[in-house]
UniProtKB/TrEMBL annotation:
Native source organism of the sequence: Saccharopolyspora endophytica
EC numbers on record: 2.7.7.4
UniProt domain Phosphoadenosine phosphosulphate reductase: residue ranges: 29-253
Entry protein name: Sulfate adenylyltransferase subunit 2
Segments of this protein annotated with the region Disordered: 277-300
A matching Pfam family: PAPS_reduct
Length: 300
């Protein structure tokens, strides 16, 4: 680590460098912005990368139609405050148009996001997407490079990746290919929250302790919502909870918590040994290969 620089300084510098490199090499980048904590930090880094100029690319959200209203409100407001164009790729619109099919009995639409994402890339001719994925989240994401290449079908081959020596990035692609850039690759969940504290990054209220009606399923506390049918033994209870990650309501669990401030969340994270996806994402807990399968098909 360079003398005089903290770990957070180094991580920020690395992320800003990657963002600038991709913008310099690609023609039509966009930033994946769901309104979650990682994408909120990514948006802050993009602000810093080009300040005092505005962010020179749009933000893209793949909306399952089952998202938390608080997160969607935050997404829309932040995009408006920054004056960036918000592109929403709707899974519901893809289903209605017959471009993708929702299997009977399916609850989580996370896997259906792939088709909507690839449609948005084709429609807007995006050749690079910034994502907030981190290597500490789960095993498939740990296989990613900072620049991850997708072929003309949007698919990822983890065995065919370019070397990244001394932070030298090769963003050249063939027509029809796409680059996924992950500036937060080397960050941990605690790093993200420490940066949120240091930079006063605003987040949706769901990340902090609040009273909410939840029910337990497979060891997870799921929020009461109109997209999930509860069984007779799945009784609603009101608990003080917060969300470590925010996504599709049907598969995103809460954790019991009294952490109402950033510093309290950081202290809570320091005591856990389970990643947020491993603890609170039902679709990632069902199969060790679930995320890698989705990524090979073109997922984030």
């Amino acid at each position: 680590m360079p003398a005089g620089l903290s770990r957070l300084d180094v991580l920020e510098s690395e992320a800003v460098h990657l963002i600038r490199e991709v913008v310099a090499e690609r023609d039509r980048p966009a930033l994946l912005f769901s309104g979650g904590k990682d994408s909120a930090v990514l948006l802050k880094l993009a602000e810093k990368a080009f300040a005092p100029a505005p962010i020179p690319f749009p933000v893209l959200h793949v909306d399952t139609g089952h998202n938390f209203e608080e997160v969607l409100d935050f997404r829309d407001r932040r995009a408006a405050e920054l004056g960036v164009r918000l592109v929403v790729a709707s899974v519901q619109e893809s289903i209605d148009a017959g471009r993708t099919t929702e299997p009977e009995g399916l609850t989580s639409r996370n896997r259906l996001q792939t088709a909507s994402l690839l449609e948005a890339i084709a429609e807007h001719r995006f050749d690079a997407l910034f994502g907030g994925a981190r290597r500490d989240e789960e095993r498939a994401r740990a296989k990613e490079r900072m620049l991850s290449f997708r072929d003309t079908f949007g698919q990822w081959d983890p065995r065919n990746q370019r070397p990244e020596l001394w932070n030298l990035y090769n963003g050249l692609i063939h027509p029809g290919e796409n680059v996924r850039a992950f500036p937060l690759s080397n960050w941990t969940e605690r790093d993200v929250w420490t940066y949120i504290d240091h930079e006063d990054v605003e987040l949706p209220s769901l990340y902090f302790a609040h009273n909410r009606k939840v029910f337990e399923r497979d060891g997870m506390l799921l929020a009461d919502n109109p997209f999930l049918l509860r069984g007779a033994d799945e009784q609603l209870v009101e608990r003080s909870v917060r969300f470590r990650t925010v996504g599709d309501m049907t598969c995103t669990g809460a954790v019991e918590s009294t952490a109402a401030t950033v510093s309290e969340v950081i202290a809570e994270i320091a005591a856990t040994r389970i990643s947020e996806r491993g603890q609170t994402r039902a679709d990632d807990r069902t199969s060790a290969a679930a995320m890698e399968d989705r990524k090979r098909e073109g997922y984030f």
